[in-house]
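Email to the structure team, subject: Cytochrome c model.

Hi all, the expression group asked for a predicted structure before they design truncation constructs. Nothing fancy, just the tokens so they can compare against earlier work. One-line instruction: predict Cytochrome c, return tokens.
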Amino acid sequence: MSAIVKTTRTGQARGLRSLLALGLLAVGGPALADSDNYVEIMRGRALATAGDCVACHTAPGGTPFAGGLALQTPFGAIMTPNLTPDIATGIGSWSADDFARAMHEGKRPNGTRLYPAFPYPSYTKVTRADADAIYAYLRSLEPVSNTVNRNTLPFPFNIRASMGVWNGLFFTAGEFKPDPAKSEEYNRGGYLVEGLGHCGVCHTPMNALGANKSDHHLEGGVVDNWTAPNITNDAQAGLGKWTVDEVVQYLKVGQARGVLASGPMKDVVENSTSKMADADLKAMAVYLKTRGAAGSPAPGALAANDSRMKIGEAIFVDTCAACHVRSGEGIPHVFPKLAGATIATQDDPASLIHIVITGGQGAATATHPTAPAMPSFGFRLSDEQIAAVVTYVRNSWGNAAAPVTADAVKAIRGKVSGAAD
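Reply from the structure team: attached below.
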């Protein structure tokens, strides 16, 4: 696999000065701040960006990569570790072999097993050369002392030895294997999507043991009570109606086809994909557009005179139409389009329910710095009213999806932050 960032040694001194100015090399830190390793560090920085490492390993208001974020799992919260080169609390005592073992085998230097909340089932596909480059970058960071409690799961999930059984059932170690029958661009996209990007971790449903259902790969999942949509090429629920260029645009700026990235995807766009090379994004799009899947058959839309539709329409006109407009077309670059939007027709309506209850904000990127926002309506709409308006959105302007119940809204309201009683 070719390097994600192709760099020459031309102008090394100038590049080194730039790195020092940006704080990418820690003078006096574990990494050598000289022209022999800055190219590797820059390559590692790009790889870490593609892997979106900073999103999980940074606590709210904390120092980037210093850990302490509570990842919510079905089994309890897991605190993310400190990745800075602090000797006592970070990875300052780790060797390159130790880091590669964590990436490829899911084990700490002492052999203790990691939980797959750290996506080693995906990172095992990363080449050793790329793992070494990420290690070099992390070693160049300023060491931060931040002790993180790494044993927060309740019994019996806190027994890490049980991961040996889990690995035996669900984990296959090994680097990404290019398909010789496919193009270099396709294989590059596969390496990024299946490996560093670990897209399947969110966009694939999980079984009761927290493993991805391999027979439904990339067909959609649930993350923090948001729907991670189907990203196969399925025409009904996935990317079938999107062009390669539209997928690239969405990953680059967080907007395409009237859709705005929000929820967990907002962070992915802001921290990762918006900072990746266009060629890498195109490779990912090419790969995703070949991932065919037979989604659920399109249901029939509810009749306009259905009582739920009548109630939902009244709420939409009163509460939503000012921004999303009466036709559901939204306002380009400001308010998302609801007509024909896959967020409206996913089998799981969690994202629509979530955003009505708590509000939300779109991604802010270099080319689109304004992050459009939606206020919370959970404080004034009842479960029945939210169910009605979401049902209306899912069955208007050509959309067709199953109606939503008040019980479904109540269940999500009880889980999401910012929900009103």
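Residues 1-35 have pLDDT under 50 and may be disordered. Residues 12-170 form one domain. Ping us if the truncation boundaries need rechecking.
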